[in-house]
Amino acid sequence: xxxxxxxxxxxxxxxxxxxxxxxxxxxxxxxxxxxxxxxxxxxxxxxxxxxxxxxxxxxxxxxxxxxxxxxxxxxxxxxxxxxxxxxxxxxxxxxxxxxxxxxxxxxxxxxxxxxxxxxxxxxxxxxxxxxxxxxxxxxxxxxxxxxxxxxxxxxxxxxxxxxxxxxxxxxxxxxxxxxxxxxxxxxxxxxxxxxxxxxxxxxxxxxxxxxxx
Length: 213
Fold this sequence. Notes:
CATH topology of the largest domain: Tetracycline Repressor, domain 2
Shape: globular
Distance between the termini: 72 Å
Number of domains: 2
Structural class: mainly alpha
Largest sheet: none
Order of helices and strands: HHHHHHHHHH
CATH architecture of the largest domain: Orthogonal Bundle
């Protein structure tokens, strides 16, 4: 069913608000996001803003839902494909890293204590995150079953490595120059992720292998 003109305008306004909020959070962090300032930046009244998003929690939930949808869509995860599970994980990581660099958005902000607490209280955002985590977990399990990952690794090892590398663009803070080429940086992160999972050995196995009989 096609949307009416009014519905399309409402959708466009909603997207504009989310984009502006995302930029504000990238500049100052979620804790500093003020609904008054957001309304001014978008050029709308506060009642119009609150009609779209009654609370900051609702705004954050909508941002997370859209971000997850956009990243999984960009990586074509879940669609019929001949790409292996590990390749799909790499594509998702690449899309996430490239997005962060282009939009100056740090993924780890979602896991700050104050943000995590808000997410736990908001069913929509929590469900979106859990759904995404389950999809990534299933890909990790399939990659191990397919022999794409070192045999002694577990899904949790893959997930922790994946999650850690999501913060790659901003590790080092002000002490390092910003990533100038989003694609090249994402390529590097994916290469580290893929090769590391294929060749790494857990410390307990390495020690055993190094013993001389």
